[in-house]
Amino acid sequence: MTTTTTSATPASTRDRAPRGPGRAGLPAAVPGLASALVWGAGQLINRQAGKAAFFFAGFAGTIVWEIASGNYYAGMDFTARANGGFFIRGLWGLATLGTQPREMTLTGLTEGDNSIVLMANGLIALLTLALLAVLWGWSVRDAVRYRAALNAGGAAETSRAYFRRLWEGSFAYIVLSPGMVLLVFMAVLPVLFGILVAFTNYNRDNLPPKNLVDWVGFDNFATIFAVPSWTETFGGILGWTVVWAVLATVTTYAAGMLQAVLLASPKVKFPRMWRSVFLLPWAVPAIVSALVFRSMFNGQFGPVSQWLVDLGITDERVYWFTDPSHPNLARAVALLVNLWLGFPFFMALVGGVLANIPESYYEAARIDGAGPVQQFRHITLPIVQRTVMPLLVLSFVHNFNNFGVIYFLTEGGPDNVDYRFAGSTDLLVTWLFKLTLDNRLYNIGAVMSLVVFVIVGAISVLNLNRTKAIREL
């Protein structure tokens, strides 16, 4: 009689091993297809009940959410508008923007569709579905990869071990995921909403809920770039915006560097006191400073115009911000005020860079016979530019969209008869503000926001990619 000795298999190993005839050779596509149809079904086939429960909870929660927020038991006559839940009605509203406007009857206004609310709800539903699609894709991918690993002779793994490994290996992503979800709804959602408004007829002549908003395709873009009055306004404002951004950046950078170099000189006494004094314009809120300068340069009551008359420089008061025949006066004052507000930032920035330049560089230059100008040109300037170039690009972007200085100082004035809803000092961002808030041309304002985004984004990416400090990251 032959006695066969069978080695004992640990209970944990027996629980993890695939059971049933033919399970080890099951094609990987089978659990993947099962999870694609019902989340977690593939994990159940793979004998991972914990993972199956996790994915199925997301699947069941989505269905329950849709059914509970809808009206699926109202009858056989089902419509997305009347019976759909959060997802079905949301996608319907995003596609149609409503079908029934509010009407005045003897009993009051009827209950109709608000196209803008439907658009917002539709975007929320769409983004939520996108996040759920990530969970669905995770379920399918996990089922396929795990089955393929088993078929290749890999060891089985319990759900608990999988989640433990996931926690240890992807801890950073798990912690960051709530912030990413919040970012989707707080940042991506408004951007997508603004993009969609650019393709509608949402304006002061077509306001919901009394009127329905319709999709109009690229008609708004054709209005901006084909109608002469709009094209002239856009071209003029765009040209001034670029000039403003360049001059505002260059002047503040040059003045800040000059102040930093002077304060770094050993001949200047009490440099900390001077540095504190020159930082005051940056410490005072920009809006407050802009309003103060606006009062000082007021053409009728401001002291600047009165001083010019008293000194005999001008025969009459100068209307800095309201003279349509001399728009460059307002532009020059705006640049001067922006210089006053912006140079302390670059002074502090460049001052910090100068403090970290080794003195041995200058000693070697002096030994070689280099003077102060040559030292500045070949040592100070290259080191400073390499360090601050990314911030120069960001400063250009900030000045391109510098709403506060222009709006609170000049309000876009003086008036320009050739422009539509804009003045001679308006930037694209202040013109956008007037189009939306003052004139309720939301569709045209959305088009302008897209144009600003494309221009600023292209300039920023191009310059940052060419910056050595960014390439070395």
TrEMBL record:
UniProtKB keywords: Cell membrane, Membrane, Sugar transport, Transmembrane, Transmembrane helix, Transport
Superkingdom assignment: Bacteria
SUPFAM superfamilies: MalF N-terminal region-like (SSF160964), MetI-like (SSF161098)
Membrane topology: Multi-pass membrane protein
Transmembrane segments: 24-45, 52-74, 116-138, 171-199, 237-264, 276-297, 332-357, 387-409, 441-464
Database matches in InterPro entries: MetI-like, MetI-like_sf
Region annotation Disordered: where it falls in the sequence: 1-24
Skewed-composition ranges (Low complexity): 1-12
CDD domains for the chain: TM_PBP2
Subcellular location: Cell membrane
Keyword Membrane on entry: yes
Protein family per UniProt: Belongs to the binding-protein-dependent transport system permease family. MalFG subfamily.
Role of this protein: Part of the ABC transporter complex MalEFGK involved in maltose/maltodextrin import. Probably responsible for the translocation of the substrate across the membrane.
Name of the protein this chain belongs to: Maltose/maltodextrin transport system permease protein
Organism: Glycomyces niveus
